[in-house]
Amino acid sequence: MAQQERAIRTRKVVLDAAGAVFAEQGYSATTIAEILKRAGVTKGALYFHFPSKQDLARGVIEQAVTEPPREEELILQSFVDMGLELAYRLPREPVLRGAARLAADQGAPDFFGTPWPQWAYRGEQLLNKAKAQGEVLPHVDAAVTSRLLVGSFTGLQLVAQSEAGAESFQELVSRLYDHVLPAVALPGVLMQLDTSVERGALLAERKPHKQEAMS
Amino acid sequence: MAQQERAIRTRKVVLDAAGAVFAEQGYSATTIAEILKRAGVTKGALYFHFPSKQDLARGVIEQAVTEPPREEELILQSFVDMGLELAYRLPREPVLRGAARLAADQGAPDFFGTPWPQWAYRGEQLLNKAKAQGEVLPHVDAAVTSRLLVGSFTGLQLVAQSEAGAESFQELVSRLYDHVLPAVALPGVLMQLDTSVERGALLAERKPHKQEAMS
């Protein structure tokens, strides 16, 4: 394996381990020693990529802003797809779980940010594009609607985690779109949008995602 | 002051102090010593009401489930009022801030619960009543819609906290209702609902709430 390729792989292994430990323990209780143990890399390798716990948290947050969704014929479908795919992947990928936990760790985000502004900005761009294509009701403010969805998504994850046996997180996100889209989409567009839970899995599987470490 | 009255007052002072400290520091970093200092009561008085930190957290959570909103002619207005009033009061009242932080403290709610199930249940009851009065679209599932709103409310609070200068929490909650109600209310009812930010303040002020400790 070429040196550069090895470095990329190490970085990925470390971020997966860091994501898993942050997700389980939160920022303040996490130790670099635990991440090292989980990643199974040398101390030198870890510190080469991430000189501090704060850098590890930043790395996890940055990694959690995934590639944009594929453009569908209806741009509003791409907007919905962002959330459906993330709701499917979040419980399954340590980096995403870690980022979600870090973002909800009050106080701590001052040190390493959250993925929220990027997620919200991406949604805003899609909504504006959808508006330009005439898919969106005229009074919709793309920035506000996108922030609302990012915030709601985050809260639903917390509520779903805390209540075993209730609707799953994925189910709640799908219902969130059903509730919000009538206030966003033109009626003719609304009818064509797929907000089903199953779509999240299809989207996640058709993309060649990086291999995920078991955790 | 009669003994019982003094006991009620002490309990309230302790819960306000506990709410403020939990809100600032989260569950695990909070110490009873800090709450004692903030409350300015004796150790004996505090332990009489709350034998452990876990009991303090439970007390804060229970206290955060406030009295139901006044019944309006449209029951859907009462449903909206719950959230508008809470969004106004939450940043202003230590017990509510503490409960919100505790609920979002992952892992910790296993020890002391969250106010979410009660909030969701109260919303569900109102929605069912509104349905019986013919205010609600026929396909609405009261339990799901209420849980969605509780989860979204929680997430919006986190997002609003993390972004200074953006829309306030109250503003976001008001916009949340604007987005969700078209999927819930019959069109003729929808037109009559007041989701304005100002309504939250009016609701909070017309009720005789307990005096809040400064914190």
Comma- or semicolon-separated keywords:
0% strand; disordered C terminus; Tetracycline Repressor, domain 2; elongated; homodimer; Arc Repressor Mutant, subunit A; mainly alpha; 215 residues; 2 domains
Description:
Chains A, B: One of its GO terms (molecular function) is DNA-binding transcription factor activity. Chains A, B: This is TetR/AcrR family transcriptional regulator. Chains A, B: Keywords: DNA-binding, Transcription, Transcription regulation. 2 copies of one chain form a homodimer. By secondary structure, chain A is an all-alpha fold. Chain A folds into 2 domains: 61 residues, Homeodomain-like (Arc Repressor Mutant, subunit A, Orthogonal Bundle), CATH 1.10.10.60; 132 residues, Tetracycline Repressor, domain 2 (Orthogonal Bundle). In chain A, helix 1 crosses helix 2. The longest helix of chain A is centred in the first third of the chain and has 27 residues. Chain A starts with a helix and ends in a 9-residue tail after the last helix. The relative contact order of chain A is 0.14.
